[in-house]
Amino acid sequence: MSSVTAGSSTAAATLGLSRTAVRAKVRVRRKGTAQRVRTAISAIVIVIWCLLPFYWMIITAFRDVGYTYDTAFWPTHVTLDNFTTAFSTALGNHLGQALLNSLFIGVCVTAIALLIGTFAAYALARLDFRFKGVVLGLILGASMFPGVALITPLFQLFTNIGWFGTYQALILPSISFVLPLTVYTLTSFFREMPWDLEEAARIDGCTQGQAFRKVILPLAAPAVFTTAILAFISSWNEYLISSQLSSDATQPVTVAIASFAGSQPHQEPYTAVMAAGTIVTVPLVILVLIFQRRIVAGLTAGGVKG
Amino acid sequence: MSTATEVVTPGPPRPVRRGRTLKRNRETRVAAYLIAPTIVLLAIVIGYPIVTAIIQSFQNDPGLNATTGQFVSGGFAGLSNYAHWLLQQCMDASGNTIACPPGNLGSGFWNAAGVTFFFTVVTVALETAIGTWFAIIMNRTFRGRGLVRAAILVPWAIPTAVTAKLWYFIFSVAGIANSLFQTHILWTSDTWASRFAIIIADTWKTTPFMALLILAGLQLIPEEVYEAARVDGASRWRTFTTITLPLIKPALMVAILFRILDALRMYDLPAILTGGGGGSGNATTTLSILVIKQVRAGYNSASALSTITFIIIFIVAFIFVRVLGTNVVRTQEAQQKGTKA
Virtual CA dihedral for A171, A173, A174, A177, nearest 10 degrees? Predict the structure, then answer.
């Protein structure tokens, strides 16, 4: 608690400066060195908090299996063996197949959610209609829905109609949480778009189709793209439903990693699991870092967990 | 377009209003077409399972009748599936209602509910406190702010299943947590240690997300308010409690609500990090884990439990919105207007 107090109290004094980033008009004030040092230390604490466990996973992934419990904080006994082990199918692990499954499921879910969600988001953002609040509330409520409440009926249904372990049995339930997220995030983005430009283009002689193609589409593209990333990540990270409804052939990476088997029955293959985790996470982290600004905008606009 | 001309023509306000109603009617029709696919799809993937689950929760499991030896296909069960969980009532071999024996999943309900609420209260409290601090730091200008804002997304981007495996390694008996602090704690099998292992892992992963939501609220506070407080000689703590907190309250409440609903359905972390049990086998069993354990042991009973879980989450959300006056939709709209200005 004391750190919260200290952090917030200095915030009050230095907030004038932080505002300058947003509003250039505010004059720059001299800042005490002590405060600057405190801010720097806090920032370092945040970065360590966020990156240290992630860093630990990566250096373990590159560490020889004989030195699994090495406590050095820098890479030691570097090897690529763990990645070979992670992809090996000799012990009944299917990481390569699982990566393809996750990719396929993620792309399908994202495509369906965007295709259908864009229409709904356009209506919610642009049109004035009755029951708008009800529809918004319904969609928000759907995104907060516990996935576990869907499992029992779906498990039974999919077993009965022979869908158990198929791709569609994994794609359909994922839509239940990806679609609300898509609609909500896109609605927030669409509300902020300068729609007056459409009118302006029409006045300048564009047809409605041209105005849509040349003005609205390029403006909406980043919003749709960001939403696609968020939708894909939330589908990629799903575990609960897939762990119950997938088979060995269709299981996504989250399930594959959670049930990763080693050569010894009672010995967890930590280094190989960390290698698998690195493979699954690093592309995602790179994607997130590249589109950092837009993702933060999407997350805080939608306010829904991805 | 017809409204535009009507608004322009001077006259009594009545035609204007009628024009607006007409426009609204027309837009309602268009909106219905645009929203229909979303609603239909959600009805299929959420509505159908929910209705099925509720119907099933009032059915008996099909099976052999112990007294007659004949196969019975279930039938109406009344509230017995609910009583099984809420009152620990089981059926004995001859169909009489008895108290569930220890080890039966039914006797684990209140424990699971307690564990779920304990996780929810502790993780959300920690994440709110630490997240607020993170947000305040990130709201300042300093060199390397971009790095901090990028780093904050890393825990969020890592799949929970991978997070669980990562902390499983960190908390292993010979792992870095024990060797760093020179301890020999059984993080994944001791009752309280396994609970705290989950709380630590969840706090690590979710605090940055919380910080981002709170930061969005912080950025809306105008600098003038702080200037005024400074002129009046308010202390830093007073400024925080009387200015910052009340002004970020709407954003904070929405963030907390989302987190509470999320924590109440926690599954991935305890299922992987402690194998669903931890300690004596149910130290970290949340309601979601209990449902999954039950699914293969009997659909109808599992349906009742998932319906109970759903109702609990609904009630918590309802109380939160009513008592604390959180208006999720309006708060978010205000935030968007604020960032636009």
Answer: 150
Of A129, A160, A227, A246, which to mutate for an interface test with B (greatest number of B Cβ within 10 Å)? A129
Domain ranges of chain A: 2-61, 81-300
Q: Which of B172, B261, B310 sits opposite A149 (nearest CB)?
A: B310
Half-sphere exposure of B66 (CA within 13 A, CB side): 6
Q: Where are the domains of chain B?
A: 109-340
DSSP string, B184-213: ---TTTSHHHHHHHHHHHHHHHHHHHHHHH
Of A3-7, A55-59, A102-106, B92-96, minimum mean pLDDT range: A3-7
Q: Tokens at residue B272, please?
A: 């992987």
- Alpha-carbon distance A128 to A130, whole Å? 7
A81-300 fold: MetI-like fold (1.10.3720)
Axis crossing angle, helix A167-192 with helix A217-236, rounded to the nearest 10 = 140
- Asked if the Cβ–Cβ distance from A146 to B271 is below 8 Å, we say no
Model pTM score: 0.84
C-beta atoms of B158 and A130 within 8 A: no
Q: What is the pLDDT of residues B124-164, one digit of tens each?
A: 999 999 999 999 999 888 888 888 988 999 999 999 999 99
Mind telling me how many Å the CA of B5 is from chain A's nearest CA?
Answer: 15
Cβ atoms B153, A292 nearer than 8 A: yes
Closest CA to B214 of B252, B245, B246, B249: B252
> With contacts defined as CB-CB under 8 Å, which chain A residues touch B208?
49-50
d(CA B88, CA B105): 9
d(CA B62, CA B73): 4
Give the span between the Cα atoms of B167 and A61, in whole angstroms: 14
In angstroms, the CA B222 to CA A24 distance is 14
Give residue-wise pLDDT tens across range B262-295.
Answer: 899 999 999 998 876 665 677 888 889 888 888 8
Domain at B109-340, CATH class: mainly alpha
Partner residue opposite B141 with nearest CB, options A21, A56, A60 = A21
Name the burial class of residue A159, with classes exposed (0-12), middle (13-18) and buried (19+) by CB atoms within 10 angstroms of its CB. middle
CB contact (8 A) between residue B137 and residue A300? no
Structure ipTM: 0.83
